[in-house]
Amino acid sequence: MSGIRVSGFSHVAIAVTDLEEARGFYCGVLGFEELPRPDFGVDGLWLRVGDLQLHFIETDVMPIPGPGFPHFALYVQAHAWEDTLAGLVDAGIPFLMGPSERTDFGVSVRAAFVTDPAGNVIELTDVGSLSM
């Protein structure tokens, strides 16, 4: 497909049944660093894993129903954002959520969500690894 350019992973997001237990394991045992997280109206946790991110959302039901979780995020360079979204539209791929914009770590971030043919949720975002 012309115009669609994915450059790598941004983050992986998973659901957990107890955020404090997850924080204890991932930060206390594995040594991951907690990162600031925007208020999405639901409890969650973002961690640094090297120069990448691991995101969590808390739920009573595994897997969590509804759009957004679990998902993986693909990195689209900012200069390729518009062409990539246009390429998806041209390919007939519907958006589950977005495109939208938010602020992460003081930086404006664009995101859009689509599903693959099996129903897996994929976030496309112009935020890359933490080393970028």
By secondary-structure content and strand pairing, the structural class works out as alpha+beta
Task: List unreliable stretches of 5+ residues.
Answer: none
- Helix content range of the residues, please? 10-25%
State the end-to-end distance.
Answer: 26 Å
CATH class: Alpha Beta
- Supply the number of helical segments: 2
H and E order: EHEEEEHEEE
Q: CATH homologous superfamily name?
A: 2,3-Dihydroxybiphenyl 1,2-Dioxygenase, domain 1
Q: Approximately what portion of the residues adopt beta-strand conformation?
A: 35-45%
Structure commentary:
The protein has 132 residues and is an alpha+beta fold. The protein has a single domain (8-125), classed as 2,3-Dihydroxybiphenyl 1,2-Dioxygenase, domain 1. 16% of the residues lie in helices and 41% in strands. It is built from 2 helices and 8 strands, in the order βαββββαβββ. The chain has helices spanning 19-29, 81-90; strands at residues 8-16, 33-35, 44-49, 52-58, 71-75, 95-104, 107-115, 121-125. An 8-stranded mixed sheet has the order 2-3-4-1-5-8-7-6, covered by helices on one side. Strand 6 and strand 7 (107-115) form a beta hairpin. The protein is globular, with a radius of gyration of 15 Å.
In short:
With 132 residues, this protein is α+β, with helices and mostly antiparallel strands. The protein is built from 2 helices and 8 strands, in the order E-H-E-E-E-E-H-E-E-E. The chain has one domain: 2,3-Dihydroxybiphenyl 1,2-Dioxygenase, domain 1, CATH 3.10.180.10.
